[in-house]
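Wait, mind explaining this?

_____
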Amino acid sequence: MPAYWLARSRIHDPVEYKKYTDLVPGIINKHGGKVLARGGNYQIMEGPEDFHRFVVIEFPTLAAGVACFESPEYTQAAAYRRAGAGVVENVIVESGDATV
């Protein structure tokens, strides 16, 4: 069952943050992920406007998405943003039952 990595971010240092974003696509591909949306136009419909960049990545399974996030390669890349380049909230959610 597919799973989706959803990220919202606020960038403090674009130069350092770019060091992170330059590395991430290859890491995602290695784990079978596919970026569906990354940094495009958006409209916040409800909730706080604390974040200004949004990313949606599809993985074949929840386990594949978690393995990507926990991989040594991703941990090294994320160190750039975790050192103060930006703030990110990440969640990986299985598609599950799509009925509302």
About this structure: The chain has a mean pLDDT of 94. Residues 14-30 form the longest helix (17 residues).
